[in-house]
Known about the structure:
Elements lengths: L13 E8 L3 H10 L8 E5 L8 E11 L4 E7 L5 H12 L2 E8 L3 H10 L8 E8 L5 E10 L9 E7 L2 H4 L11 E10 L3 H12 L5 E2 L4 E5 L4 E5 L1 H7 L11 E9 L2 H10 L5 E2 L3 E5 L7 E5 L6 H4 L1
Parallel strand pairs: 1-4, 5-8, 9-12, 13-16
Antiparallel strand pairs: 1-5, 2-3, 2-6, 3-4, 6-7, 7-8, 9-13, 10-11, 11-12, 14-15, 15-16
Amino acid sequence: MEQPQQLPVGEKIFLDHVAHFVPDMAEAHRELNRLGFVQTPYTEHRHLVEDVAEPVPSGTANRCIMLPEGYIEVITVSDATTPLGQRTVGQMERYVGLHLIAFGCADPESVQGRLTLTGFHPEPLVHLKRFVGLADGGEDEASFTVCRVRPEDMPEGRVQYVAHHTEEIVWQDRWLHHGNGIVALRDVVVGVDSLDKVAARYCWFLNRGGPKPLSEHVWRIPLDRGGVVIVDEDGLADLVPEAELPEDGPLIVGYGLLSEDLAKTESFLKKRGFAPEALDGYLRLSLPDSIGGTLFIAENEADLPWIQG
């Protein structure tokens, strides 16, 4: 069986990962274990700064759920005095849940230049590092380059590009097999007031020609892997009836996942005490309040509710 391509090449853009911001990593860790997800060890982020030889703490820490295609990150604050820590605290004050969308690219310098030309305001590239344990008991350092824009450019959250430099360290086989059968991250869902304005902004950000209207209230911007689904209030009411848009701006609602066997995934989750809703070819599961967000799980990409139309 051919292995999926994990990272983009050339000018391709993938949905690389999404991230939940949580105030209590220990509680989130327990719930994700119960959901059947293998998680990487707790690790603090560090970044390089000018005139300092060693990377310095960024103020956040994570665990990751690595998948054969993409991954899910869980972030907490390790130092609220740093700029990144302060911003993360502020985002969690809006709500606990999804606050980050990362798009994979091969050339962040080129992306930074393009974003500048199209009216965004990229910050200086950030060179992140974190230590990662190896299967043989050793340790190595994973490294990434991140291109972020100023918060007001993408008000739904920390929307950024990432280039991975250490694929073999980050995607270790021992972390790719989950008891719930989940194998891939596909689309991220964003709830907004105005479809046309936000869709246009994402098309500029992602260098796409235009969105694909799936209905009057649901539009999708396809990428080379995955995509961005934009829904207005009526579309959100159909996808997640209990969800509401915050008064102070947009909401990263949830994301689509693929399962190797949907019936087994449903059975596993029920045995663990969860109540996934079995809908037309997919499962919908609202995550515990300690994690936030909604999962849409299908066996085939075409069965995700927004692809069905």
